[in-house]
Amino acid sequence: MDLKDAANQLGVHYQTAYQWVREGKLRAEKIGASYNVDEEDLRQLIQQRSKPAPPPPKVKVRDWHQQKEKLLGHLLRGEELQARSQVQRLADGNVSVVEICEQLLSPALAEIGERWAEGSLTIAEEHRASAIVERSLANLMLSPAGRPKGVVVVATPPGDEHSLPATMATAALRNNRWITHHLGTQVPADDLVKISKDTGADLVVLTVTNPQALQAAKSLEKRLEEEGIPYLTGGMGSRLGDLLAAIEAKSWTNSSSNALSEEPHAQRRDERSAHGTENSLRN
Ligand code: B12
User: Fold this and answer.
1) Which of 75, 123, 160, 233 could disulfide-link 210, Cβ–Cβ 3.0 to 4.6 Å?
2) What residue numbers bound the domain in which 151 lies?
3) 254-272 pLDDT, tens per residue?
4) Closest residue CA from atom 59 of ligand 1
């Protein structure tokens, strides 16, 4: 077949097919002034082009500590564009949302919390940093193609204003093909139950960061149990990887209580006791 017909079958312009012949991508025999393309060669090239491109190679982060220090610097100086492009570069390099959250964003935020607690960072600076992290997370809210695994509702109990952990959980779930309804903070129990039923949620994920909201979380759990809606609760120090593992294994089924909800702050409460919490972020 001549090159013009081959180009048509490939769905490209004649010049492109000619370029491919010159580059050796498409084999063709020169006969006089024209080119002859073997049908088998053409079939193979068409097949090769129809395969999805392989995912970009995963960027290997050698030094997360250095990444965290760099991000922390941007957050402390209020350099939003630099912070967001640092996060974006990792996402573009196929680094998982869980890694980005747990190796980079959470450690940077933890340090911001430490500095606030010891009085070297103002509330305004903390708010500015949190807002940048929140907007960096927006870029990670991707839902890859493929059959959804199920429906999840993510919420934070009343009395807890720490919205970022639930946003991170949402990003991780969406990236793992769970349809995720992210409700943010301060959702009344009745409304949480209603939306869970309306959306046909398989599971409610609760995130508790403020120890003072633990009781509210317990009441929500009790209510969900009464309604027969499964839930998983996590908090400071709990791992997104554990959330994904539990949800993949569907190991929440009939869980009337779960270990994660017992002491969500246990791990870090000890670590941070030296800094105290008498300072207030809010006044
Ligand atoms: C930002 C921030 C705030 C912001 C929140 C803004 C926002 N939009 O979220 C504001 C200003 C509102 C705030 C307020 C307060 N804060 Co504050 N805050 C922080 C800070 C600096 C970051 C929080 C954060 O997002 N952390 C990063 C998260 C994402 O990391 P993580 O906890 O490990 O989260 C993981 C898990 O939650 C997991 N996950 C999420 N969902 C699920 C679900 C399941 C099932 C599983 C398995 C896992 C999982 O995913 C996350 C990522 O890996 C922390 C410092 C810190 N160490 O975190 C203090 C911190 C949490 N705050 C603290 C305090 C004391 C308060 C206040 C009580 C201060 C006050 N006196 O007013 C108030 C409480 C207000 C309220 N009613 O809630 C203390 C809590 C200490 C304690 N444990 O007792 C901390 C630790 C600061 C400190 N060092 O003292 N805070």
Assistant:
1) 160
2) 143-283
3) 443 443 344 433 333 333 3
4) 113
